[in-house]
Amino acid sequence: MTQSKRASRSAPIRVLIAKPGLDGHDRGAKVVARALRDSGMEVIYAGLRQTPEEIVRAALEEDVDLIGLSILSGAHMALIPRVLGLLKKNKAGAIPVFAGGIIPDEDARRLRSAGVRAIFGPGASLEEIVTTARKLARPAA
Amino acid sequence: MTGAPRLPAAARAICSGDRRALARAITAIENGDPDAGPILRSLYARTRQVPIVGFAGPLGVGKSSLINLLVSHLRSVARTVAVIAVDPSSPFSGGSVLGDRIRFEARANDAGVFFRSMASRGAAGGVAAATLEASRLLDAAGFDVVLVETVGSGQVDVAIREIASTRVVVLVPHLGDEVQTLKAGLFEIADVFCVNKIDLPGADTARRDLAELVGLAPAAGRWTPRIVGTSTTVPSGIADLWGAIEAHESFLDSSGTRRTGERQRLTAEIVGLVRDRLGRELTRELENDPDLRRLLDRVVAREIDPRTAADRLRNAVRRSR
Ligand SMILES: Nc1nc2c(ncn2[C@@H]2O[C@H](COP(=O)(O)OP(=O)(O)OP(=O)(O)O)[C@@H](O)[C@H]2O)c(=O)[nH]1
Ligand SMILES: [Mg+2]
């Protein structure tokens, strides 16, 4: 296993981008997906209206290194902890999750303490998102 | 049975339905990870030659939408199914956006379905280098049918020939010039033509045009491609599409062409593996060969030409082996 971890360090990072919840558009998520692709990652784009169960299933089948969730408001607050919980239940709690969207400070604090590794507000630059995503996916590299 | 190697732990996990182990093994194949070899070697004997159905055709004709409905159809008749959907990698960044999963509806608790997106990673021909071995792993894992969606670049998606037992070429009404370009590639590989989006006008004409083209080349004892009309937005024709695929699969058995086809595909695979390995070894050997440097000096000085240099190097390598 240590052998394979070393071999896969130069392999492309696989990242799942999804948008949980019923409403909204996915323009922001698409922009982020393209930026991650342009940095050399393989982005599995699952699209809108994903349930936490679907997101976790996709993450496991696609064997991703990283999950990015796009949310539009605090209305989706319950969904992200549910994703984290399901990942843990499937022994995949080590897959880092980041989130982006319009997230009030108080909610951001709660998400961080629930285990979300990074949160990007509307002001975050794509460069910042890409750099952080890379660090989350390959901490030792 | 002799010679079946003991199963590595990961291979055992895959056979017992561990989806995470399966997903990780596919990644290992994609990455050329040393873990992949023992798994593939040990599981080959467990493959059952399940139907591997390839879907090729131009961008946006509805390949993913069709696969989604076919999966529902197959599940309704209690067959398990795995999907590999290939999208292109950027030649510049190496990255890729894999978007076929969007068309795949929620089946969150159905263990009879597995969906994997795969980047082409520079391979030409519409599939990735890992697609063949990954589909074999899905066979060994117990899925009854494997569906493969190619990149969608139209006439160049012909590598599916080396992977699929049945090839479906998907088209849409208003083929026009497309039928002409089809002649240059995809047309020859189609076992089934699927005219999708028949809810749009022009479907009848498209089917007639195709029927005429297909009718031009009838041959005794050979499979004549079927033409099926489908719509995924106003769902229709999906059972017919599966029927045509199954008819071709039956033909492969009754005519004996499954065996000859498989031998051809395996020949290509094995020769390819040997070529890759020899190529890598040779590159390594040649790069460190003092003859190369001497020859290079002479080529640069215009004393000998590159072809002559290659002849001499090849002879030197042959003698040393
Ligand atoms: N009218 C109509 N539209 C359809 C039908 N099937 C698919 N579409 C639409 O065609 C578009 C492309 O569908 P996909 O299933 O993604 O096509 P694809 O061939 O997988 O596309 P690529 O993977 O990008 O090559 C979507 O907007 C679908 O909604 C159909 O039967 N009728
Ligand atoms: Mg598609």
Describe the protein's topology.
The complex is a heterodimer of chains A (141) and B (321).
Chain A: H1 2-7, E1 14-20, H2 27-38, E2 42-50, H3 52-61, E3 66-71, H4 79-89, E4 97-101, H5 105-114, E5 118-120, H6 126-137
Parallel strand pairs in A: 1-2, 1-3, 3-4, 4-5
Helix pairs in contact in A: 2-6, 3-4
Chain B: H1 9-15, H2 19-31, H3 36-43, E1 52-56, H4 63-76, E2 81-87, E3 96-98, E4 113-119, H5 131-140, E5 145-149, E6 166-171, H6 177-183, H7 186-189, E7 192-195, H8 203-215, E8 226-229, H9 238-255, H10 257-287, H11 290-300, H12 306-320
Parallel strand pairs in B: 1-5, 1-6, 2-4, 2-5, 6-7, 7-8
Helix pairs in contact in B: 1-2, 2-5, 4-9
The complex binds guanosine-5'-triphosphate and magnesium ion (MG).
Residues 63-64, 100, 149 of chain B line the site of magnesium ion.
Q: How do the strands line up in the largest sheet of chain A?
A: 2-1-3-4-5
Shape of chain A: globular
What separation lies between the terminal Cα atoms of chain B? 35 Å
Q: Estimate the global geometry of chain B from the Cα principal axes.
A: globular
User: What is the name of the CATH class of chain A?
Assistant: Alpha Beta
Order of secondary-structure elements of chain B? HHHEHEEEHEEHHEHEHHHH
Query: CATH topology of the largest domain in chain B, which one?
Result: Rossmann fold
Mean pLDDT of chain A: 88
Return Rg of chain A in Å.
14 Å
Query: Taking strands numbered 1, 2, ... along the chain, how are they ordered across the largest sheet of chain B?
Result: 4-2-5-1-6-7-8
CATH level-two architecture of chain A: 3-Layer(aba) Sandwich
Largest interface: A-B, 34 and 33 residues
- Number of helices, where a helix is a run of at least 4 consecutive DSSP H or I residues of chain B: 12
Oligomer: heterodimer
| CATH fold descriptor of chain A | Rossmann fold
Structural class of chain B: alpha/beta
